[in-house]
């Protein structure tokens, strides 16, 4: 059987399956300094100028949580009609990559600062769809790699340059519960949801929310559940989507 015979169009897929969506939206906070260090949080400065020994993961350095970051998270929790934890905890998420000199990300796992919220998303025809928010947790961003030569991607590059100015920039990650029931309007809902999150964080002044700069990035998760089934299908994830239109295409 050829590849063309194995695929189905969107209409046929909607007849046979119910789409299940999930979104993880990473929002860079526009605080004056980074989440755990006194380095400036500024976009567009000369590479590797806004760094401290802590941002570089040097031995003996200890993090100090930025009070303003916590205040911004609380502001978001109120905007999402969510619960705000009286206490929260950070954990190390270990992975090895050149843009993370500490070899771990400082994030929140089992005790996030914000949980159990919701967002009512209005679609183009005025229909309102409620999206349940599972959690929003704080973490630090990684540095940025620039691949030199070839197409600009790591494959075929002659060298890779790393800028640690972004390492330690505060992020809040907003995670939805599984979204069921959107049907054929799933792509429209995906775009509307990310647009609404972008507009909210900009309105409450916790982020510049410029997606072309990476201030807001989305991981879009989709699975197809056969009609009448009780279990979700195999999940696919499209990471680091940086425009609302691209989010819509990722779900289609």
What does this entry look like structurally?
- The structure is a single chain.
- The chain is of the alpha+beta class.
- The chain has one domain (3-251).
- It is built from five helices and twelve strands.
- Strands 1, 2, 5, 6, 9, 10, 11 and 12 form an eight-stranded antiparallel β-sheet that branches. The chain has a two-stranded antiparallel sheet with strand order 3-4. The protein has a two-stranded antiparallel ribbon with strand order 7-8.
- A hairpin with a 5-residue loop joins strand 5 (114-122) and strand 6.
- The longest helix has 18 residues, at 186-203.
- The protein starts with a helix and ends with a helix.
- The relative contact order is 0.21.
- The model has no long low-confidence stretch (mean pLDDT 94).
Using the CA coordinates, give the radius of gyration.
20 Å
* Straight-line N-to-C gap: 24 Å
Q: Please state the average pLDDT score.
A: 94
Number of helices: 5
Kindly give the count of domains.
1
Structural class: alpha+beta
Give the low-confidence spans. Answer: none
Beta content comes to 25-35%
| H/E series | HHEHEEEEEEEEEHEEH
Helix content: 10-25%
Q: How many distinct beta strands? A: 12
Describe the biggest sheet? 8 strands, antiparallel
Shape: globular
């Amino acid at each position: 059987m050829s590849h063309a015979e194995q695929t189905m169009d969107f209409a046929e897929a909607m007849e046979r399956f119910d789409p299940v969506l999930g979104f993880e939206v990473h929002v860079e906070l526009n605080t004056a300094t980074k989440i755990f260090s006194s380095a400036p949080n500024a976009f567009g400065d000369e590479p590797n100028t806004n760094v401290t020994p802590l941002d570089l993961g040097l031995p003996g350095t200890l993090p100090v949580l930025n009070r303003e970051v916590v205040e911004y998270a609380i502001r978001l929790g109120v905007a999402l009609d969510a619960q705000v934890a009286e206490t929260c905890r950070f954990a190390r998420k270990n992975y090895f990559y050149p843009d993370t000199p500490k070899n771990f990300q400082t994030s929140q796992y089992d005790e996030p600062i914000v949980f159990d919220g919701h967002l009512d998303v209005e679609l183009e025809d005025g229909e309102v769809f409620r999206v349940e928010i599972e959690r929003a947790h704080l973490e630090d961003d990684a540095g940025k790699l620039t691949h030199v030569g070839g197409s600009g991607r790591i494959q075929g590059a002659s060298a890779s340059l790393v800028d640690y100015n972004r390492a330690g920039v505060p992020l809040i990650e907003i995670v939805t519960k599984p979204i069921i029931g959107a049907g054929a309007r799933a792509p429209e809902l995906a775009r509307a949801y990310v647009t609404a999150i972008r507009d909210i964080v900009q309105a409450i002044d916790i982020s510049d929310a410029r997606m072309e700069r990476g201030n807001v990035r989305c991981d879009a998760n989709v699975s197809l559940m056969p009609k009448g089934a009780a279990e979700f299908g195999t999940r696919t994830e499209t990471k680091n989507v940086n425009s609302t239109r691209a989010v819509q295409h990722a779900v289609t």
